[in-house]
Amino acid sequence: MKMNKLLFTVIIFLVATSLFAQEEEKKEVTTFKIDGEFRSRFESSPSFGGRNVLVGENTHSFNSIGQRARITTYYDNKKMEAKFSFQDVRMFGENKNVDKIWSSTYGNGLAVHEAWAMYKFINKPEQVLGIKIGRQELKFADARLMWNKDWLHQAASHDAVNFQCRNKNMGIKWDLGFSLNSVDMPGQATPFSTLGFINISKSFGKNITINVTDLYEGMESDDILANGKQDSTYYRNTVGLNPVLKLGGLTFNGSFYMQMGELESLKGNYAGMMYTANISYNIVKKYKIGIGYDSYSGNDGKGDDNKAFITPYAGAHKFFGNTDMHLKLFGKGLGLNDINVKADLKLLKTTSVSLQLHLISLENNLTTADGTEFTEVGNNFDLVVKHKFDKKITLIAGYSLFMPSDDFVKYSFGDGNAKMHNFAWIMFSFKPNFFKSEK
To answer: Is 220 helix (H, G, I), strand (E, B) or coil?
Structure first.
């Protein structure tokens, strides 16, 4: 009898364990969804040359509407995750897939933005370890070295192999991988052949996070650059950290990076450096103010080393004002300094306002035609208003005013006068969900 009771108890235990296991398996959800995005942006620039070119007072303004239509499919279960994103990017009225003028700004009309699959060796609530292979967006913590450049309609993505680890118990995240991109990848300021990266984020409680990044770039001599030259073999290694400290409503966000390497056409090496320090304070939940300083090194004409800090894959539009005047200045290799003041206001539950003022100068001198040396470039003021009609429909409007220094005007036009540099834009974004299945 005792044996029967024992046997019965064992059977009940096994059945209960089996049912429990089946119940646990039922909790493993497979998700499949199809999302869309329809984004149109009207822009009014000072001239056909764009928003980042200072022009004479008699130059005609240029108006345009760029658009992005994107379809994204996403699949996720315990072991596999995959994403495929297909987009059409063009200017209103453009019928060709590639327009000679606008392809440099918006990229190809039809393109695959993302196409990757990820296998998860470990997938637990507190720990994920996997490998992601394919075309994907690469975004590092502070966007100073790598970002998806979403302001551009074509955005930026990379063909990469990316090992990812997320461990909540240890407060650590890391990405380790390499990328191979062709010369004509849309969204890249400078093409590359190989790119290696490691990005580690370590949290110390809820208030301190330190992000460490090492980015390696390499190009062979037979690769063709945008300027047609073929003698640009180089390697460039950028390494540094981004600490983030939060104390109540006060947040400190800083960056420090050094750049090393060799360029075939130079006798010397890369020797660039950049650092930033930004402090913001939440007065209340609806109001935030901040002040910051950014410094990017430049060439001083002394020695053979290239001291200009280069960030070809960063989202620089996030940092130096919406006129993007910094793009032309970076090209001069003279470095860039930016003192910025920011304020974010949430007026209603669905409406917010952002104000920014950037005081932009060069680290090294420019010289006007009459021999005057100067570093002060000008001030950039931005106003952005964002209104959400609901979670899927957003309207954003912006106005920017760039006020150049007298010396910068003299450098650009001699004794001429610069046109008032206004840039205005309105963007409509609709992100519907077409299909979603969870089972």
So the answer is: coil
Look at the alpha carbons of 416, 419, 421, 426 in this order and tell me if their dihedral is positive or negative.
negative
State the Cα–Cα distance between residues 208 and 246, nearest whole angstrom.
Answer: 6
Instruction: Tell me which H or E stretch contains 329.
Output: helix 326-331
Mean pLDDT of 229-257: 87
Whether the predicted pLDDT of 25 surpasses 70:
no
List the beta bridge partners of residue 409. none
Rounded Cα gap, residues 313 and 196, in angstroms: 13
- Fill in the DSSP letter of residue 61: P
Q: How far is CA 265 from the centre of its chain?
A: 29
Contact 136, 114 (CB under 8 A): yes
- Cα–Cα distance between 297 and 307 in angstroms, integer? 6
C-alpha 71/C-alpha 73 separation (Å) is: 7
The answer to whether residues 36 and 72 touch, using CB atoms and an 8 Å cutoff, is: yes
d(CA 187, CA 158): 10
Distance between CA atoms of residues 416 and 55, nearest Å: 10
Q: In the chain, what percentage of residues exceed pLDDT 70?
A: 84
- DSSP label at residue 306: B
CA 223-314-430 angle, 5° bins: 110
Residue type at position 89 = V
Whole-prediction pTM value? Answer: 0.85
- Would you state the structure tokens that stand for residue 301, as one six-digit string? 């004409």
Residue 129 near residue 187, CB atoms below 8 Å? no
Residue 274 has which token pair? 């950049």
**What is the structure's pLDDT at 188?**
46
Residues 184-225 have pLDDT tens digits of 544 444 556 788 999 999 999 889 999 999 999 887 655 444
Cα separation, 80 vs 130, whole angstroms = 9
Backbone angles phi, psi at 390, to 5 degrees: -160, -170
Positions of E strands within 264-372: 269-284, 287-296, 336-346, 351-367
Structure confidence by residue, pLDDT tens digits, 35-93: 999 999 999 999 988 888 888 888 899 999 999 999 999 999 989 999 999 999 988 87
Residue 197: how many CA atoms within 13 Å on its side-chain side?
A: 25
